[in-house]
Amino acid sequence: MHLFVKSLVIAVVVTQFAIFSTTIFLHRTASHRAIKLSSRVTFMFKLILWITTGIRTREWVAVHRLHHAFTDIEGDPHSPVLEGFTAIQLKNVMFYRRAVKKPGVVSKYAKDLAPTRSDKLIFDHAFVGLGIGITLLVLIFGWEIAILVSVMHTFMYLMLSGAINAVGHTFGRRPYDNLATNNNWLALLTAGEGLHNNHHAAPTSARMALGKFQLDPAWPIIRFLVVAKQAQIRHAEPKFVNQVRVSKKSYAS
Question: In the chain, where are the structural domains located?
Answer without folding.
Answer: 2-250
